[in-house]
């Protein structure tokens, strides 16, 4: 009888654990499918991220607290932004860079060369996801008083502005040195053969 009871208890506990695991798997699948569906909607995604960030800023201004959380979030967003502007392969350490040009990587300089899009170290989707997650976590932390550490916030503001200026200056110098822009532009657009031929040729062929 004792063995039967113990086996029944183990089976019930394993069944409960399996049920919890299925719930977490279902939540994970729903979360991933939601992210997959939101991938092509870039503008709507950033509108949502801006809304969450606006809620966080309003809570900071209304309650006049949690400046440490705001400062840490600003530093984290700055690091994300720099990674978003940085190429995936740093031209300074690119093994395929041209040996005869020390000032830049092996990038197209004429219109007849091969088109190469700018590949970021941090892709746009991951940039958005990290910004949204971190802002949501920061907003959640503002509901707890033990995160509200008393500080003199003007010092944090001045330090953040100084750090932002120094970081962006270094990034702009890097762009100028290796002659790149963190945006894909001048992408060639190809037309169909029918569009090039025009409607007149189509009418002539029909005759």
From TrEMBL:
Its main location: membrane. The chain crosses the membrane at residues 44-62, 68-86, 151-168. Keywords: Membrane, Transmembrane, Transmembrane helix. InterPro entries: Rer1 (IPR004932). It is a multi-pass membrane protein. It comes from the Eukaryota. GO terms for biological process: protein retention in ER lumen; retrograde vesicle-mediated transport, Golgi to endoplasmic reticulum. It is found in: Membrane. The keyword Phosphoprotein does not apply. Belongs to the RER1 family. Involved in the retrieval of endoplasmic reticulum membrane proteins from the early Golgi compartment. This is Protein RER1.
């Amino acid at each position: 009888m004792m063995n039967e009871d113990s086996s029944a208890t183990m089976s019930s506990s394993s069944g409960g654990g399996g049920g919890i695991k299925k719930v977490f798997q279902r939540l994970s699948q729903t979360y991933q499918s939601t992210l997959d569906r939101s991938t092509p909607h870039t503008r709507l995604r950033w509108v949502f991220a801006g809304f969450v960030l606006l809620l966080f800023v309003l809570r900071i201004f209304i309650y006049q607290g949690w400046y440490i959380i705001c400062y840490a979030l600003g530093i984290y967003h700055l690091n994300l932004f720099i990674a978003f502007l940085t190429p995936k392969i740093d031209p300074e350490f690119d093994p395929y860079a041209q040996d005869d040009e020390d000032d830049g990587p092996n990038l197209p300089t004429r219109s007849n060369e091969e088109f190469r899009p700018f590949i970021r170290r941090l892709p746009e989707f991951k940039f958005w996801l990290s910004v949204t997650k971190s802002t949501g976590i920061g907003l959640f932390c503002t509901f707890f008083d033990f995160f509200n550490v008393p500080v003199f916030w003007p010092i944090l503001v001045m330090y953040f502005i100084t750090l932002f200026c120094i970081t962006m200056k270094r990034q702009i110098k890097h762009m100028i040195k290796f002659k790149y822009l963190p945006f894909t532009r001048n992408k060639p657009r190809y037309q169909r053969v029918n569009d090039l031929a025009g409607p007149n040729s189509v009418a002539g062929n029909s005759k």
